[in-house]
Here is the input.
Amino acid sequence: MAHPPEENLLKSGLILPPPPKPAGVYKPLLQVDNLIYVSGHGPVLEDGTLIKGKVGYEITVEAAKVAARQTGLTILATLKSNLGSLDKIKRVIKVFGMVNSTLNFEEHPFVINGCSELFAEIWGNENGVGVRSAVGMGSLPGNIPVEIEAVFELA
Amino acid sequence: MAHPPEENLLKSGLILPPPPKPAGVYKPLLQVDNLIYVSGHGPVLEDGTLIKGKVGYEITVEAAKVAARQTGLTILATLKSNLGSLDKIKRVIKVFGMVNSTLNFEEHPFVINGCSELFAEIWGNENGVGVRSAVGMGSLPGNIPVEIEAVFELA
Amino acid sequence: MAHPPEENLLKSGLILPPPPKPAGVYKPLLQVDNLIYVSGHGPVLEDGTLIKGKVGYEITVEAAKVAARQTGLTILATLKSNLGSLDKIKRVIKVFGMVNSTLNFEEHPFVINGCSELFAEIWGNENGVGVRSAVGMGSLPGNIPVEIEAVFELA
Here is the structure.
């Protein structure tokens, strides 16, 4: 039987970063019916700073995958901070993974798996995996390597 | 008490551009249940022409913010033209703000605030502010500096 | 009177490619209420390989439009494979068309029309046409020229 997300988070030993304050005129998340729309998030570290660097130029593909995982943790922090508990979320609907990469970069799915594998650890291989696009941007705010927006369904 | 969107628009003295005809095989907007999905819009001026130029190369970040505001006005024109009145819209759900910028550009949130601040003027600081991503594209149609797609909720 | 999508597909003589297996941790599609969310798809050929090349650099705008049409066929293959029949889909809600193009490319709507015209052939000019953005990415997975994600409504 599946374990609740909060129990999986506890067992993982993962530490969530502080939920970021919006960097502009938007809300971190918003509810419409039984869906939670989450704004684009970057990789916030435990000290509140952001991982930076263009993938394939300033940081490696492996470091970018770590950044995608950290972006996933940042989304978890926003969910937990706003909803009180990850157990309020039943499943992942959609992940839109944006990689700030060089123009000949080809490994976007590998990078964004850093976030997707985290969500699968928390919500399981069925409910933790939704639809996804993993694509390459020309640039991202503050030169972060990864920005991810997502949609979740409430329990 | 909050004023209706149309009253806020009137008070603002802002003039909406002509609603653009689709530049391809798509609808300007579409209703699903109580949501209005809006296609990607560019910055249409009152004479029907588009603001052009890559941000950080052909136009400044300040000019790009003005272009994002003009893109917001263009979305308002599409909403009003298709729904009859902005009062039909209760709140902003989502803004996806795309900036056609140089590869080292970092100020996407500042640029897209041009649109977000407009929506907050029209629908207020609570209902006019939704979730958002503000990101950098490699290129945009016709070399427009900003393209924005959005989702709104009907009243 | 409108013909069913499967009848239109049959009459068209078009051959669907094999539905692609996910290239990462995601589902090809997912249902939420009466909506089908489809993951980003690339242009899969009948032999299972992908069309490749950056638009305006390695492939022409005309070849890119063909790739967008092939991407549309790939989405149809995923829909049919997972739902059993295209007749299960009532209408196209949204197409997000991403073009892997040079930084001065401007013809994204022309390219993505390759997919949109296909959907209009299958579901008709009203139900087959939804909202859309057609934009330029810095890069795409495996250097595919086009990636498209979409939302459909069930019949």
Observations:
- Residues 113 and 138 of chain A are 20 Å apart (CA to CA).
- The mean pLDDT of chain A is 97.
